[in-house]
Specification:
3-stranded antiparallel sheet; alpha+beta; BirA Bifunctional Protein, domain 2; single chain; 12 helices; 10 strands
């Protein structure tokens, strides 16, 4: 046992001499003096030795531990002294090169894009209300993007979405894949794969084959939401979206619900907020209406639930979808969505 202690000391001292950084010194301390070190393992094994041998080995081990701790402190002081000497040499070099009291060159700081900031805030609001986040593929099957959402091949809603189809054909001559036109496609997948109760939001990029202008770009961001459970009513939908609008736009902004049509909900509603510029009096921003639409919503159509394997006689559901870029424009009073996707740092640094 005493020979083992001598070997441990010799090995530890030899390793200590080769250490040149504070990080390596801390690793040495943990390895040689920590709770799981070989020295502590030997000390824990003293109970198995005879009394006289235990006393002798214990005293020797304690002396060894004290010597290693002194060597550790001495090495720590040497490293600190070497560091101070290096800093002094750097300062002397700086003095020789110029005035070290002058401010240095400022380093540019990165920041989150305003669309990313808006997405993060939307996620935070809904997750605090018990929603979980799910994602889906951006290259989507026609079935999930249209068919499962009550949008058959002859439906006029397909024309308004200006789809970007993937250039391949099946044996029937159809093109069944496209860049998804709305994140509601993820809703169709959730209804098919998850079992109630369901409460999810589905953020992501979507694509429309259309020209860019002040309010349209071919790629933008949406967030859809879905809740499925027994006894869900329109009151639950209104309460959820009122709370979102209050927390995102402020408590003093009025919210309006009006009937609207969407193929995958029945009844459908349009949600608008009071214009931040004219406060309801009417101006150029809101088209003299005093209100600005922010999202569409409604009670999920029974056929959409049935196609996903959920019995609409047992469960009810609400769904909603919002354009993130539009919300960012309203939040920051931006009149051209293309500014978000440009490279003008003067614009992006404002957020």
């Amino acid at each position: 046992m005493l020979e083992r202690l001598q070997q441990l000391e010799s090995q530890a001292q030899q390793e200590l001499e080769g250490i040149a950084s504070a990080r390596d010194l801390e690793s040495w301390r943990v390895r040689c003096l920590g709770k799981k070190s070989q020295l502590n393992e030997l000390l824990r094994g003293l109970a198995a030795l005879p009394l006289e041998q235990r006393k002798a080995v214990g005293a020797h081990a304690n002396e060894l531990k004290a010597r290693l701790e002194r060597s550790l402190e001495h090495k720590r002081q040497l490293l600190a002294l070497e560091r101070r000497e290096r800093l002094l040499r750097v300062e002397e070099t700086a003095v020789a090169l110029g005035d070290i009291t002058l401010p240095g060159r400022p380093l540019p700081l990165g920041r989150l894009h305003p669309i990313t900031q808006t997405l993060d805030e939307i996620r935070e609001i809904f997750t605090s209300m018990g929603f979980q986040m799910v994602e889906g593929p951006e290259v989507e099957w026609d079935r999930y993007n249209f068919g499962a959402l009550n949008i058959p091949p002859e439906h006029p809603a397909r024309d308004s979405m200006s789809s970007s189809w993937i250039d391949f054909e099946t044996d029937t001559g159809q093109r069944p894949m496209l860049l998804r036109t709305h994140t509601t496609a993820v809703t169709a997948r959730v209804i098919e794969t998850m079992k109630p109760p369901i409460r999810v939001i589905e953020p992501g990029r979507v694509y429309r084959y259309e020209a860019s202008d002040a309010t349209h770009v071919p790629m933008f961001h949406q967030v859809d939401g879905l809740a499925v459970d027994k006894g869900i009513t329109m009151a639950d939908l209104k309460g959820t979206l009122y709370e979102f609008s209050r927390r995102f736009f402020g408590e003093d902004r009025r919210v309006r619900f009006r009937c609207d049509y969407f193929p995958f909900v029945e009844p459908g509603v349009e949600i608008a907020i009071e214009c931040s510029v004219c406060r309801g009096d009417g101006c150029r921003l809101c088209g003299d209406s005093g209100w600005i639409e922010i999202l569409g919503a409604g009670m999920t159509h029974p056929e959409v639930l049935r196609r996903g394997g959920i019995d609409p006689e047992v469960y009810t559901s609400f769904a909603f979808g919002m354009g993130v870029d539009r919300l960012a424009m309203l939040r920051y009073a931006i009149d051209d969505v293309r500014l978000f996707y440009g490279s003008d740092l003067r614009f992006l640094r404002q957020f």
